[in-house]
Amino acid sequence: MDKKQATAMIKSKAHELGFMFCGVSRAQKLETEARRLEDWLNKNRNGEMQWMENHFEKRIDPTKLVPGSKSVVSVAMNYFNGQNRQPADSPKISKYAYGRDYHKVLKKRLKQLFQFINEEIGEVEGRFFVDSAPVMDKAWAKRSGLGWQGKNTNLISPKVGSFFFLGELIIDLDLEYDGEIKDFCGTCTRCLDACPTGALNPERPYEIEANRCISYYTIELKGSLPDGLNDQFENWMFGCDICQDVCPWNRKSIPHDEPDFNPKSDLLEMTAADWQNLTKDVFDEIFAGSPVKRTGFDGLKRNIQYVAESTGARSDFKNS
Where is the 4Fe-4S ferredoxin-type domain (predicted)? Predict the structure, then answer.
């Protein structure tokens, strides 16, 4: 089987498995990205996310992560869930976290894709990844032609915007490689202008100061939230979609058709008062198998308390 045929079969199977896009790039060291990452880390823009400093050589070179690898197969899965149907005054959750943990959903499909390659194309060695190893997902997706990395640092597709998850297969199979597409951000600065905490700086487009990002504060930061930023959180209690919501390309977003990403009805019915009185039992029920588990019950209570204080709302939490 030649490279062209094998590549076509892989892409066709990826779409059959529910991936919106699939592209392929050569497994090689990311020279330009390595310099940018090193500079970014040296400026401590990763905050408490020390794991981003680990395994640097593997992060920038897939052949060190997967010896003998020749190709990086990048996939994208849509998670856009349309209009937020929660009560208007409820604390907000990022769109990606409404349903089942995406790590589990994508890994299961990538495993099936990997098995398909071994059964239908030939025995290969490799590994599959979903945001859980030293892999620069967006860099590989960009090189594979899935989109360009925008000024908000998210990968943007000219077809559907940016509300999608990324994953990769790194394998020792030589394939037909895709090329990068054009950057269509142009002179637009909506994401930079809209960021309330200054994580995105108009003077430094295409770079995020993660340790000032609402998503970082509400998910990654384990200690106390910073004083005086309550109003700037704009009622986000887990994650933040501001820089994506204002992006003109996301006018092209289409609702996903993946049942695993559908929110539980109980979640959509939670009022501001319900969140303020959240119990451990309710948390465990609503967020079973959810990405929100990452911040934990105490972490989510901390976030709810914090955003409630910006409006002077009463935060009378009940511990279970």
Answer: 173-205
* Residue ranges of domains in the chain: 3-171
Tokens (6 digits) for 17: 């498995």
pLDDT digits (tens, 9 = 90+) for 155-203: 999 999 999 999 999 999 999 999 999 999 999 999 999 999 999 999 9
Q: Specify whether 266 is catalytic.
A: no
Helix, strand, coil percent values for the chain (each to nearest 5)? 40, 10, 45
Distance CA 165, CA 155 (A): 10
Out of 61, 131, 137, 298, the active site residue is 131
Q: Going edge to edge, which strands form the sheet with 71-78?
A: 21-26, 71-78, 164-171, 126-129
The tokens describing 296, both together, are 């934990």
One-letter amino acid of 162: S
For position 313, what pLDDT does the model report? 44
- Is 155 annotated as ligand-binding? yes
User: Tens of pLDDT along 93-127?
Assistant: 999 999 999 999 999 999 999 999 999 999 999 99
Compute the distance between CA of residue 269 and CA of residue 300 in angstroms, rounded to an integer: 17
Is 100 within any annotated ligand binding site?
A: no
HSE-CB of 110 using CA atoms within 13 angstroms = 27
Determine whether the annotation assigns residue 22 to a binding site.
no
* pLDDT tens digits, 28-75: 999 999 999 999 888 888 888 877 888 899 999 999 999 999 999 999
Task: Tell me how crowded residue 265 is: count the other CB atoms within 10 A of its CB.
Answer: 9
Residue 215 assigned to a binding site? yes
* Separation of alpha carbons 215 and 39, rounded Å: 22
Sort strands 71-78 and 21-26 into parallel, antiparallel or unpaired.
Answer: antiparallel
| pTM: predicted TM-score of the whole model, two decimal places | 0.92
Which runs of consecutive H residues, i.e. helices, occur in 228-295?
242-245, 265-268, 272-276, 280-286
